[in-house]
Amino acid sequence: MDVTTLKQQITSKTPAMIYLALGTQQVLLQRVREMFINLIPKEERVMNVGSYDMETTPLAVALDDAMAAPFFGERRLVLINKPYFFTGEKGPAKIEHDLDSLSNYLQHPEPSTILVFLAPYEKLDGRKKIVKELKKVAVTVDTAPLDEAHARQQVRAELTSDQYTIDETAIDELVQRTNADYELMNANLSKLKLLTYQDRHITQQAVKELVPQSLDENVFDLVNAVLKHDQPRSIDLYDQLIAGQQPPLRINAVLISQFRLLLQIKILSSRGLSQGSLAQKLKVHPYRVKLGLRTVRQFSLLALENAYLGLFNIEKALKTTQRDPRLLFQLFMLQYGQQQGIGMS
Asked: For this UniProt entry, which segments traverse the membrane (predicted)?
């Protein structure tokens, strides 16, 4: 189930005894944590809420807490953070975890305890016996990074619950400026709500005023200008990055990274990989793949290769000479425009 469904479930009926929140989206993991803590009355939390980090605390300590009866309350909540023993990862050698006791607990959980595993991992090791046992009894909550569609949906749902409205163009702008990274989108919502507190309506202009474009997003505009041989636009964008106190080596490194990604997308998409498969294989956000696919359809493989190699030459010059970065970029644009095979694919 997703986080929204979890909230509906645990507030409308008796919670299950064991939950597993699995995924690397920290804001969703934190939200799950807060949802469960809110089930315990404030005056009871000191005695009836326990939180244990498996990288620093033996599992036996958390299980002892889980098996204890609530102290003057109906429920006890035990949160187990970073249970790396469910994965193939190795934890601190000095910490020993009694997985046999956990296996016994999973078969005979304490009815008055809610045991929640907060697992900030992409996946668990399904070959492990303890993982198979966990999946049989635990309610799994998906806290994986949200794709663009679900990030938009989550933003709308959160604003609606706080009685705010948002224009579609404003969401589009927010997605663009954060590369559809829900972590960044969520971090900016508090500022947007504060700005629009009186009328409780978020416009595109509000997003433009408050949400800064990431370096990757600015560089993406530069990449497109380079590929279109728009020298005035390319140099103007480059100058803006320099004026924004971005180090030339860092700008160039991000440019190289963007062109590397475009090359990978161009080659792999020609082999029939879908957008989702590309995102998974390249380990990048699906929104970046979506934008990349839109770009590579317009340009040849040779055009991408020439730009990629030209930027490597800039990097070498930046590291070995004292030449002006702006001049190096201008020369790159001139040479790139003169190369054969550049253009529409």
From this structure: none
